[in-house]
Amino acid sequence: MAEIIENVHGRRLIRVTTNDVISLVKTYQTIACESESYSQIREKLDKADLYIPEDV
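Now predict its structure.
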């Protein structure tokens, strides 16, 4: 699960786990395999909702 970390300057960072990264890569690979060009991949990724669960 992703963990949101706030630093002293108020900026938020997201620490992701290996499983989070693998999930995002799988989503990308699925979209890329269904596309014929870089522009199609970009277009589909722009429309895709990608979520990383937050660690509470």
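The mean pLDDT is 86.
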